[in-house]
Amino acid sequence: MTIDTYILNTQILKNSIISHLDKEVVWGAVLDITSKAMKPQGERKFMKFRGYDIHRWRGSSGGKPKSIEADEFQYIEKLGKKDLLAGIGKCVLIDSGRRDLLCCVHEKSTVENKMIYRYTSNQKAIKTKSRKFRKLRNNLKRDEVIVAELFLPHFKPSTVNKDKFVEYLQERAKVIPVMKAYYLNEDRPAAEDQGAGDFLPFRKMKLSSFINQQQADKRLVKKLRERFGNDAILILGNWSAGNVKYHGPIRGVGMKRMLAKEGFQVYLLDEFRTSSLCPSCQNGELEMFKKVQNSRPYQREKHPIADRHGFLSLRANGERPERFCRLKKSLSTNSKRKNISSSSASTSRLTKRPNNPL
């Protein structure tokens, strides 16, 4: 829990005046600001105790500003003419994504002689066995652990209400023994792991995951060298995205660092508007939608070519046309069947005669 200047002044020190707060005075009431631990630290005194900024909502901690250093990976546009001429015939353009982690195309690749390579997220999951370990953790998890993990999130640890935070601590104290008994198997010796019963050997699984990741990286590097040569120059797009629910994290900077560590020359390419501007004239805009053959044979004489987004142009009032809308629940087939079955069941109950006991 982060204690900022506002919380310290109002909740702990019980001061009523909150305007024009002097951080040194407020924090000096509970801490020794002149002590060695609170003085600026680091080679250039970057680490400083900053207290709390009301307007910018920063927590009370020692912050280190970003140092102005050269970029870790250089953009291909910033290279000199000599370096660009030296890399002719060696460049490999790589596009990153969620499904295709690496989609590689050599600059000499043609339709007849394709020089491409794809490294997908499914390949990574198989080689690193991450999906297998995740299923093991979910399927073999004890019921009391599942109940504890579902129950504890109902109490927020980030609350500033004293009573709610005390309630959270009390509930957490109840589930800690169950969680420790299950997850502390990671720290047990190897002799105890074999007789752990339903407990998973988390320590061994963690080591196996690390080894599998290292081996998968070695296989990827070997494939790239076999496909594009030892002197290949890798040019990756600067695309990046945050984590998405039900999807694994994207390996962006880590992948670039791994390739550079293995001896490849790695450069970045700015992907801003690369899909909408013509690469030849640098000015004309490209078509954003694909032209396809009309799917309706009776209209091909008048309209042989149609856009993929043709039905979107029918939005006269800004809404999707009714013919392209999903049916409402009340009008869906399943609901109709349920209504019919329920009505028939009710009528059958009313008309059903009791069995004659004789």
From TrEMBL:
Low complexity composition-biased segments: 340-349
Q: Where is this region: Disordered?
A: 329-358
Q: Which domain of life is it from?
A: Eukaryota
Task: Indicate what this protein is called per its UniProt record.
Answer: Uncharacterized protein
Provide the organism lineage as a comma list: Eukaryota, Fungi, Fungi incertae sedis, Mucoromycota, Mucoromycotina
